[in-house]
Amino acid sequence: MKLFDVYSLYDIEPVSGKGNYVYTADGTEYLDLYGGHAVISVGHAHPHYVEAVAQQVAKLGFYSNSVENSLQVRFAEMLGKASGYEDYSLFLCNSGAEANENAIKLASFHSGKRRVLAFGKAFHGRTSGAVAATDNPKIIAPFNRTENVEFVPLNDIEAVEAKLATNEFCAVLIEGIQGVAGIHCPTDDFLQQLREVTTKYGVSLILDEIQSGYGRTGDFFAHQHAGIRPDIITSAKGIANGFPMGAVLIAPHFEATKGMLGTTFGGNHLACAAAIAVLEIFEQEHLVNNAREVGEYLLAELRKIPQLKEVRGRGLMIGMEIEGSASEMRLQLLKKYHIFTGGAGATTVRLLPALTVTRKEADKFLVALKELLN
Ligand SMILES: Cc1ncc(COP(=O)(O)O)c(C=O)c1O
């Protein structure tokens, strides 16, 4: 059997990793400023993470959600403290798309309404509801096309209010920072106004923090820079450092009923052990602070480079707008300088490193980039 050919691949195969580096079988070292698409939060093969996952799989890797699982309870308590959402409830699933799917479902159950307002260029995942709320017709199959979703431009509060005034919407779904679109930030003002209008019309505000959350921007979630509290927050990617896991953080006014949401694998023992280890490492190594510091440094240095047309982002979620082809630039960074980066569209290079990235590693990238641009 061969693989269904849906991914464009680099002809490089990392077979091991350590910290912020990955290695091919012949021992060639690559600096990972892509974090496997914002997934690696505490670095590759962190000893504490490896030990926690290994110990748990040797003990009990999985049992169903029909029995008590104190690892879930412990993780929920830790996540509440780390994020500042101790009064919210947690539903665990397996991926970002699934987290958004459940968030939308919850908002719809809660209000009895069926329409969702999303934003131009948004990406929320590839399952039915999540892809319908994704502004990319190329990945929306006819089956997924629905009148239940509408899009308005990011940062346009009047457009939002005009839609919400119809009283047809159960939710507004917005990324903390748009990632796949190429790192576009909602302004703090806009997020604050969005909170006000969603409250005014009784619409759930769902913050998709799947890429922008989990410490990446120097606060636990990107929306916290604007000082707002959404009704529902979705998380995934960095949550378990590569072990598949998604999470929905749910405000106290939502009432749970038995069977309302569910999953076979969500919140399994191994995933929880991985996620607990990640938060322990966050605390021990002050990784959210590190993300802020190294992120601010990188952003400031990149903004000094005259050949870059624009540098966008916050903390370690950075988009650079270049002249010419981003994929060509990324290929050269990879082949010539052994540095992994991410892309977004034709002209944006994205940086999404682990929160463990150091200033020295940032400098290594800056030297390579400047050399290439010159
Ligand atoms: C903002 C955002 N939401 C949702 C998703 C979907 O997550 P997953 O691929 O885990 O389903 C992604 C993935 O890139 C994302 O960036």
User: Which geometry do the CA atoms define?
Assistant: globular
The overall average pLDDT, rounded, is 98
Strand content: 15-25%
Distance between the termini: 46 Å
Question: Quick recap of the structure?
Answer:
This protein is of the alpha/beta class and about 375 residues long. The protein has two domains: about 15-45 and about 285-374, Aspartate Aminotransferase, domain 1 (Alpha-Beta Complex), CATH 3.90.1150.10; about 50-285, Aspartate Aminotransferase, domain 2 (3-Layer(aba) Sandwich), CATH 3.40.640. It has helices at about 35-40, 45-60, 70-85, 95-110, 130, 155-165, 190-200, 270-285, 285-305, 325-335, 360-374; strands at about 15-20, 20-25, 30, 90-95, 115-120, 150, 170-175, 205-210, 230-235, 245-250, 310-315, 315-320, 340, 340-345, 350.
Structure overview:
- The mean pLDDT is 98.
- The longest helix has 17 residues, at 269-285.
- Helix 5 links the parallel strand 5 (115-119) and strand 6 (149-152).
- The protein starts with 13 loop residues before the first strand and ends with a helix.
- The chain has helices at residues 35-38, 47-59, 70-83, 96-111, 128-132, 157-164, 188-200, 269-285, 287-303, 326-337, 359-373, and strands at 14-18, 21-24, 29-32, 89-93, 115-119, 149-152, 169-175, 204-208, 232-235, 246-250, 310-314, 317-321, 339-340, 342-344, 348-351.
- Helix content is 36%, strand content 18%.
- A 7-stranded mixed β-sheet has the order 4-10-9-8-7-5-6, sandwiched between helices. It has a 4-stranded mixed β-sheet with strand order 1-2-3-13. A 4-stranded antiparallel β-sheet has the order 11-12-15-14.
- With 374 residues, it is an alpha/beta fold.
- It contains 11 helices and 15 strands.
- The chain folds into 2 domains: 14-45 and 286-373, Aspartate Aminotransferase, domain 1 (Alpha-Beta Complex); 48-285, Aspartate Aminotransferase, domain 2 (3-Layer(aba) Sandwich), CATH 3.40.640.10.
- It binds pyridoxal-5'-phosphate.
- Pyridoxal-5'-phosphate binds at residues 95-97, 100, 123-125, 175, 179-180, 208, 210-211, 236.
- The site of pyridoxal-5'-phosphate (PLP) has 14 residues, from helix 4.
